[in-house]
What we know:
The structure holds three protein chains of three kinds.
Chain A: E1 3-8, H1 17-30, E2 34-40, H2 61-72, E3 76-79, H3 80-85, E4 97-100, H4 103-111, E5 114-118
Parallel strand pairs in A: 1-2, 1-5, 2-3, 3-4
Helix pairs in contact in A: 1-2
Chain B: E1 11-16, H1 25-36, E2 42-47, H2 70-75, E3 83-87, H3 88-93, E4 106-108, H4 110-118, E5 122-125
Parallel strand pairs in B: 1-2, 1-5, 2-3, 3-4
Chain C: E1 2-5, H1 14-20, E2 27-30, H2 45-52, E3 57-60, H3 61-66, E4 78-80, H4 82-91, E5 95-98
Parallel strand pairs in C: 1-2, 1-5, 2-3, 3-4
Amino acid sequence: MMKLGILINEGPYTHQASDTAYLFTKAAIEKGHKIHRVFFYNDGVYNASRLTEPPQDDRHIVNRWQKLAKDHHIDLVVCVAAALRRGIKDENLQEGFRISGLGQLVETGIQSDRLVTFGD
Amino acid sequence: MEEDAGGKVKKFLYINRKAPYGTIYALESLEVVLISAAFDQDVSLAFLDDGVYQIVKGQHTKPIDVKNFSPTYRALEGYDIEKLYVEKESMEARGLKEEDFIVPVKVIDTADMAELMESQDVIMSF
Amino acid sequence: MLHTVNKSPTERNALESCLKHLKKGSAVLLIEDGVYGALRGTASTKMVEQALKIHPIYALSPDIEARGMQDRVIEGIKLVDYNGFVDLAVEYPGVQAWL
């Protein structure tokens, strides 16, 4: 069993990054690995917007992360500086995510056996 | 500011392959580098491909109304971040020379860059 | 090191740059639009086949299939699913994303 850190640098829907990261993370959990943290940076902070409403026949990327985190106690952290710059605040943050400092990303690099990055 | 890293020291390499201003990646990568200084880790920065454009001298961003963050690279020394590597082939392919950079860098070839990447514990790419 | 590439080689130089920086014992995993680098008969096929002689190259099969490219993959490139991606990330001592 390994401790994995996940970094997501792009928002939902425009780029495939968040989808790939989700499917990777889910597979890792099912294989018995531990997810130390999923860190959302750059436009990745948009993955945490509670206001996201995709069409009914499409996957709900935000709620899918939320559910995965709830089911498996995963720490979903949104970078505060990147979030403020893009209008993501506690008032529109989806449940299950938390806003914190960039230090949490560096800490993820230190504490995880692997850091796997998804971006553009 | 010192952060508790549980005594672990890892080799972090920040890989910069994108030019500044057209996208935010160069700036937000630099912001992580600055934070990492507080964790007492072994930090290096690599500039290759279009990433070499991040550190050229003479950036004047006033006309595009964006903050010029290139002087910040010069401040890294004050945070004990002094290992900045530029890939020779990337530099030359863009008509640049070592004296065109705003900070002292070590120019290394592709083989040495590959060696540097392989020797790291954590690769940060944006 | 496991190197991941998610860009089409005909759009950006990520694959080319990645292949130039491979050390002995490293592998490449093509994901997302990076899977276009796994195809036969393209401008980058020769470069990829050269690398294949020395390094294992993998491609994420869900991304290949999504793009309708399942019958065009270069012989010798191994297809993996997300479970295989996880196994590779664990097997190699580090993961480097060529974004």
